[in-house]
Design goal:
The protein has helices at about 5-15, 30-40, 55-65, 70, 80-85, 110-115, 135-145, 155-160, 175-195, 215-225, 235-245, 260-270, 270-290, 295-310, 320-330, 370-380, 415-425, 455-465; strands at about 20-25, 45-50, 75-80, 90-100, 120-130, 145-150, 165-170, 205, 210, 225-230, 230-235, 310-315, 335-340, 345-350, 365, 385-390, 405-410, 440-445, 445-450, 450-455, 475. By secondary structure, it is of the alpha/beta class. Strands 13-16-12-17-18-7-21 form a 7-stranded parallel beta sheet, sandwiched between helices. A 6-stranded parallel beta sheet has the order 3-2-4-5-1-6. Strands 8-9 form a two-stranded antiparallel ribbon. Strand 4 (about 90-100), helix 6 and strand 5 form a beta-alpha-beta unit. Helix 1 crosses helix 2 and helix 10 crosses helix 11. The protein starts with a helix and ends in a 7-residue tail after the last strand.
């Protein structure tokens, strides 16, 4: 069965009746195209599409504008972001409501979109590539969506709907001169977490019926930043005072010959809570910087680029690292690398011949963020550029069929981010159906210092975000092992 035939099958299922349906399709199969075909072949006059962010909102708008099957139909299609829809005071009515990345709408403020409280529609199509893990979230969605159509990665590869690929986990050694620093930061983080262990359970609302914080980590950050609860902002100072009181501290606490009270004052004085929270967040920030901005990872990524010299996107967690990486690639391949991330400032750009890009009237053109993104993506797609260095801005929302390599130098623990980033290389290239793309994760390995095993947070995060992988990655220790 071709991908087009499978999409036709999906359209028939969608338009068969008014039952709400979730399309749980592997990334790169074409969820957007499938929905557009359903709209073109269905009996809908008013269509409302909700996207989780501005990037995907633009993605939908571009696809709708470029699709001739619906551009001339006498229908109304509105695309808006979830946050803007949730903030509307008016109730909206439509025949079809499309909710993109439906797993992101399970927070209290966005559930109203799912529940027909803000947008009242005859039918809802929910789109996702990752169903939620929690049983209560799954049951919640099943109550709203009686139908679910699933396309797995295995099915898509077997039928040649997406490109087959190999995922590598490339372990590199932590630099010797930074091992002590890393170990010290990890020790600080562990000690503070031990102090705050299970304290998030102490702070509740509705007479103890509701938890304010999902874990101790959320509480630690809230002690500094505050938290918004039921649309009301609660400052960090108040959270520290509440926690101190729950742990038995008062302003009038007596410390005379009382080790227990002295211990409470040491750890649960509001000032001590703040100091420990600051120590924790500073240690987290410093450790993340060691992991995400290492010259070893930079050199390794450049080495991979040099080995294959093929269309490659490199994902980082630091805009500084992404900038440094692009400059290093540029030294080896002048004019063939580009950079895009949300921290970029407007700038002038040069064409392939080294001339400033101008308007038709000769005036030099200054590119803003949207234009820089388009220039980078289209440049990689057309072969003007071979290498694109980015951060999180390009995790989703674009297709580059000729993309061969995705190098991931750092990431979060979120499996969805890993899926989205690796999906960039899985789009089927009709001009090169034998394309065998690679996903290459660069991570720091565990190491020994003074006889003690120091666990790599880099490795822990990688394993966490690969939990939902369809296939086992290939574990390697050298760029030479990548084929």
């Amino acid at each position: 069965m071709t991908r087009n035939d499978r999409q036709k099958q999906s359209v028939s299922l969608i338009n068969r009746d008014n039952n709400n349906i979730i399309l749980n399709y592997v990334p790169r199969f074409g969820k957007t195209k499938t929905v557009i075909k359903a709209i073109a072949n269905g009996n809908y006059n008013e269509i409302f599409i909700v996207a989780p962010n501005d990037l995907l909102k633009r993605h939908w708008e571009e696809n709708i504008r470029s699709d001739y099957s619906i551009s001339n139909l006498p229908i109304s299609i509105t695309v808006e972001t979830a946050r803007r829809v949730a903030s509307k005071n008016d109730i909206l009515f439509c025949d079809l409501l499309v909710i993109d990345e439906i797993h992101k709408y399970l927070t209290p403020d966005l559930k109203a979109i799912l529940n027909n409280e803000i947008v009242i529609s005859k039918k809802i199509i929910g789109l996702t590539g990752t169903m939620p893990v929690k049983k209560e979230d799954l049951n919640y969605l099943k109550a709203i969506f009686p139908l679910t159509d699933v396309i797995t990665e295995e099915q898509a590869i077997l039928n040649n709907w997406i490109s087959n690929y190999t995922e590598y986990n490339l372990g590199v050694s932590f630099p010797d001169r930074q091992k002590d620093r890393y170990a010290s930061l990890s020790d600080t983080i562990t000690k503070v977490l031990e102090i705050f262990k299970k304290t998030h359970l102490l702070i509740t609302y509705n007479n103890g019926q509701g938890k304010v914080f999902k874990d101790d980590l959320a509480l630690i950050y809230a002690c500094l930043r505050g938290i918004t609860l039921n649309s009301k902002y609660i400052p960090g100072e108040k959270i520290r005072d509440t926690l101190a009181r729950k742990k038995g501290w008062t302003k009038s606490i007596s410390l005379k010959d009382d080790a227990y009270s002295e211990n409470i004052d040491i750890y649960w004085n509001p000032n001590s809570i703040k100091d420990n929270a600051l120590a924790f967040t500073n240690a987290i920030r410093a450790r993340n910087k060691l992991l995400s901005e290492s010259w070893i990872k930079l050199d390794t990524a450049v080495e991979i680029c040099k080995k294959f010299n093929a269309p490659t996107i490199i994902f980082s967690e630091s805009s500084k690292f992404a900038d440094d990486l692009e400059l290093n690639i540029e030294k080896h391949y002048p004019g063939k690398s580009c950079i895009y991330h949300s921290a970029l400032e407007s700038r002038y750009m040069y064409d392939v011949e080294g001339n400033l890009i101008t308007y038709k009237n000769g005036r030099v053109k200054k590119f803003g963020k949207a234009a820089l993104k388009k220039l980078a993506v289209e440049g990689l797609k057309t072969g003007v550029y071979t290498f694109l260095s980015t951060v999180k801005s390009l995790d989703e929302g674009f297709d580059i069929p000729n993309l061969t390599n995705a190098i991931i130098t750092s990431g979060t623990v979120n499996p969805l981010q890993q899926q989205q980033r690796s999906a960039r290389v899985k789009t089927l290239d009709l001009m090169n159906t034998s394309k065998s793309p690679r996903v290459i994760n660069i991570f720091f390995k565990d190491f020994i210092i003074n006889g003690n095993l120091i666990k790599s947070r880099d490795l822990t995060k990688l394993l966490e975000r690969q939990k939902v992988n369809s296939f086992e990655p290939v574990w390697i220790n050298s760029v030479d092992e990548i084929i």
